[in-house]
Amino acid sequence: MAHIILGIDPGTRLMGYALLSVDGNKASLVTMDVLNVQKIASHEQRIKKIFEATRELIDTHHPEYLAIEAPFYGKNVQSMLKLGRAQGVAIAAALANDIPFCEYEPRRVKQSVTGNGAASKEQVAAMLQRLLNFATLPDHLDATDALAVAYCHFLNHNDSIPQAVAKTKTRKGSSWAAFISENQSRVKKF
Description:
190 residues
């Protein structure tokens, strides 16, 4: 049975969103786009629109999980606070529908998708296009950023992935399971 992950790249001007269908160890794109709230003058009305749009996505697609990108701290504290509000209302919309959420740092998302935590938005988009086999990139890369967050969640929380990783071989010929058992002090426990 397929599950749906809603990925959100929060923003107070453009909010990227994507829906990823997961069936076992196979993921496929359902849809991705951006919510453009740039023309709404009031910050409060933008936040309200983000909440309403997230609720509509949930009502339409019935996701089981919300994966959302954590706000990135830049030089402007006010921008981060506004971004945190946008993230908060998207999370509130999910929680109001009993949908669990996971928050991912931008660097972790990029690392999961491309293998490089410092990858550019264009590199992330190109890798997703190859992995999920979709024809054209969207006009705004905020949409592929949202897809990257959903894909990161898929990779980090799919039951079939750890089994597949445990069976793969490293360059030295030993399995990940062997590496983990031999290096318990280096493994982070959650």
